[in-house]
């Protein structure tokens, strides 16, 4: 059965940051520092999903999805990132899981969507190898309680983005700007993934995946310097995260002055444990040119000539087909079934007369990308699911509430949910399947 779903993440929707024993996450700290997030927005209330979740489950049930990808907030489970579980935190996800089961919606739980307990960041966060072991301990606690009812587990969400934005550039929490010295955050996340896979499987988890953010890389020209730059970018963005989990090896980064000397014997065996699927988040391709100055071995050349989202990201539906077919070409039989665990766009989405949101651009976006998934299937890629980012307008990280990705409009002053035209379109599309 093909999985049709919507995706969300804990910090982006839950709010209730100080309730029921939840600990502080790096995003609580970051959003409360002046100048970090547009307009000073925080996730303190967000969509108030922590209280309004029954309404959100009902919205998904009416939409007709058969799966829901959400993330579990580590600081609700272990407020300080280690030790005893906080029962109230587990209870929240237990209730949500039961409600989904009741509606016939298969839960797909992500264990880490960037909201690290602050106590672990204080000890170095993902730069510290110990965090990988703490992550496995947390995974075990959650699986003990929920593996009997959650069929699909995703260890990490987009470790590339978390490493780059969180540790290399600093525009996301924890706000560190280490450039290439951020690389240990890649390995330690991946090691945490490998260790967590073992804990999840030992507790009967049916399917275990990782979700990587992948981008087709387009060289700006056929000039050898542009080709080399594009290859460097592909190595750091895509292969650095896909190769170890699918092949058990890291790409050779030595030409870029990068070495992963934090890798220890046995790590890659753990990281390369065969998975039941791979989650792929796709937003757009990346066009790369040779660097003009010192520093990084590539430069983003930007993409023109396509429509753009409210964020300014180019809309290239065929890039999703290209990406999926490219994964099959590179990994062959080592590629497990693929799940598109995020795809979607931000649009202005004003509520119009009569309380409707006529988001035709989002409908065109989804239609184009769903067709691209079908084409990839026809070209031999085993794609088993498609999740729209996102169910609700939500806290869009450094952009605060200024970028709306939802199928459902949220009035952040009142919490009122209004399904957009795209919601009704998708309901129709799913019902025809
Ligand atoms: C995902 O990250 C996250 O998992 C999710 O939490 C988030 O809300 C969602 O996407 C929307 O942002 O080449 O300049 O056009 C996506 C990471 C990084 C993908 C920026 C698109 C486009 C940059 N994104 N990238 S550009």
Automatic annotation (TrEMBL):
UniProt signal peptide: none
GO biological process, one term: cellulose catabolic process
Gene Ontology CC entries for this record: cytosol
Catalytic activity: Hydrolysis of terminal, non-reducing beta-D-glucosyl residues with release of beta-D-glucose
Name of the top EC class for this enzyme: hydrolase
Active site, UniProt feature: 158, 342
Residues binding substrate: 12, 113, 157, 283, 389, 396-397
Keywords: Carbohydrate metabolism, Cellulose degradation, Glycosidase, Hydrolase, Polysaccharide degradation
Top-level taxon in the UniProt lineage: Bacteria
EC number: 3.2.1.21
InterPro entries with a match to the protein in the record: GH, GH_1_N_CS, Glyco_hydro_1, Glyco_hydro_1_beta-glucosidase
GO molecular function: beta-glucosidase activity
Family: Belongs to the glycosyl hydrolase 1 family.
Name of the protein this chain belongs to: Beta-glucosidase
Classification lineage: Bacteria, Bacillati, Actinomycetota, Actinomycetes, Streptosporangiales
């Amino acid at each position: 059965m093909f999985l049709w779903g919507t995706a969300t993440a804990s910090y982006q929707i839950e709010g209730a940051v100080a309730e029921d024993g939840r600990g502080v996450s790096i995003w609580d700290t970051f959003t409360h520092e002046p100048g970090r997030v547009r307009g000073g927005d925080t996730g303190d209330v967000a969509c108030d999903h922590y209280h309004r979740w029954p309404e959100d489950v009902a919205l998904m049930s009416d939409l007709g999805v058969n799966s829901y990808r959400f993330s579990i907030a580590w600081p609700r489970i272990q407020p300080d990132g280690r030790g005893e579980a906080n029962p109230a935190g587990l209870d929240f996800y237990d209730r949500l899981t039961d409600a989904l089961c009741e509606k016939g919606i298969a839960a797909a739980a992500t264990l880490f969507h960037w909201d690290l307990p602050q106590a672990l960041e204080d000890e170095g966060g993902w730069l510290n190898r110990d965090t990988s072991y703490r992550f496995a301990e947390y995974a075990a606690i959650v699986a003990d309680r929920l593996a009997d009812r959650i069929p699909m587990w995703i260890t990490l969400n987009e470790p590339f983005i978390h490493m780059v934005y969180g540790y290399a550039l600093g525009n996301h929490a924890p706000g560190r700007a280490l450039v290439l010295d951020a690389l240990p955050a890649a390995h330690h996340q991946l090691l945490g993934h490998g260790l967590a896979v073992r804990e999840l499987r030992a507790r009967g988890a049916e399917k275990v995946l990782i979700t990587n953010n992948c981008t087709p890389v387009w060289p700006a020209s056929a000039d050898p310097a542009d080709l080399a730059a594009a290859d460097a970018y592909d190595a750091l963005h895509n292969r650095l995260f896909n190769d170890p989990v699918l092949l058990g090896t890291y790409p050779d980064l030595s030409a870029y002055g990068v070495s992963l000397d934090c890798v220890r014997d046995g790590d890659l065996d753990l990281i390369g444990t065969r998975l039941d699927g791979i989650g792929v988040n796709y937003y757009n391709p990346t066009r790369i040119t040779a660097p003009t100055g010192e520093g990084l071995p590539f430069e983003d050349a930007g993409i023109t000539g396509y429509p753009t989202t409210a964020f300014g990201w180019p809309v290239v539906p065929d890039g999703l087909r290209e990406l999926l077919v490219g994964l099959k070409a590179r990994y062959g039989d080592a590629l497990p079934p693929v799940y598109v665990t995020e795809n979607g766009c931000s649009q202005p989405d004003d509520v119009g007369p009569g309380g409707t949101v006529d988001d035709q651009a989002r409908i065109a976006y989804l239609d184009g990308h769903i067709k691209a998934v079908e084409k990839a299937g026809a070209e031999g890629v085993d794609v088993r699911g498609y999740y729209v980012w996102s169910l609700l307008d939500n806290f869009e990280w450094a952009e605060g509430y200024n970028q709306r990705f939802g199928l459902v409009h949220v009035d952040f002053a009142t919490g009122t949910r209004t399904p957009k035209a795209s919601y009704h379109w998708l309901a129709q599309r799913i019902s025809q399947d």
